[in-house]
Amino acid sequence: MAAARGGFSSRLGFILAAAGSAVGLGNIWGFPTQTASNGGAAFVLVYLILAFSLAYPAFMAELLIGRYGQANAVTSLQKMSRKAWQKKFAFVVGFGGIICAALILSFYGIIAGWMMSYAVEPIARMFSLQQTADWLITQSNVRNLLFTTLFMFLTVFIIRKGVEDGIEKWSKRLMPLLIGLLIILIVYVMTLDGASEGLQAYLNPDLERVFHPDLLVSALGQAFFSLSLGTSVMVIYGSYISKKENLITLGAQVTLIDVSIAFLAGLLIIPAMYVAQHQGVAIFAADGSLIAGPSMVFTVLPALFNDMGFMGLFVAFAFFVLMSVAALTSSISMLEGPVSYAVERHNIQREKATPLISVIIFCISAIIIFNLDFMLDFVAMLATEYGQPIIAMLCCVFVGWIWHRTEILEEIKQGNEQVEHTLFWKIWPWYCKFVCPVAIATVFIHSL
Q: Domain of life of the organism in this record (predicted)?
């Protein structure tokens, strides 16, 4: 069975694949947006604390479910169940995570398509194709359908090849590219006038805001979203990990990479906004807060790139390629969840299941595109503000209340024989049982 399913061939392969899933637009776009909306450095400080104190324990729960079950999310959860009602509950939770991943990919593919079109626009301008360049950055159904299709094609191309030849191989290529582009852009932006002011706003926390309820909940929500919790992704990735690996160390390494890249993204975008202000671009909204969300990525930063002259074409190209790569590393994990379910539960060959499921998801994307003003925000809210917190919370409930503690210990000991005597084992089971569900429920209630 393990040979038929495939798996990660190395520790590095898993780390880069899991980090790639975590490091998507939620980090490169979402984290700086949340930082801009929540007082800068105060949000950064709280996010870093909560990522390790709450998101990491929940992340470990999903990895453990997957490695124990050695199967898709539904089957893995059902293997933990002992009673009939638990198995039914497991199906709801596991399939709910798969649906959640599919919904996220349906709107994620559209936004990723925008990133790709904005990456092509500087090339069109270099060749004096101004009409084409204008079309590439103007909202239209044709453009959105075309670039969403292109993005989904790239995702399907990778997933069809399986775990080792697809997910792992391309994660090893895309993640170094992403990190390299990010560092190059940070270095360049830091040489521009106004960057130091943005750096101060990003790194100098207002400690009075640290305990503000909205900031705490936003930081916790960002930590859970950026680690792909509640989407069945980490369950299926966990199922591809060798039993010999130390899950505690692997989970910590992925979390560290995730928060590090989120921090680097803020180190690029917040100073870049102040550089834009120095060049005459408005970066503050009417209420005095930094402009965030789509306006920041598709209005403020392009205005900055335009003011850079010819060099701005290269910077714009590099930035939107960075955003496209970040989106792709996450999309492959989101498609893998539904595909693995179809392959293992319904005996459909991966080569057939991948395009079939991607077509279904693309149809949802098309519906969203033709009703963009209403559907995009609605689907995003449904999946990320409702679906993810609920599924992540129920996964913690499964590990904390349904899965036998002795079985959990035996699973972790397969890669770490001394874990029973570590601080992790003394704290984590109680964290997962009580603290994580309450914390996630807090995020969910706040979203209501």
A: Bacteria
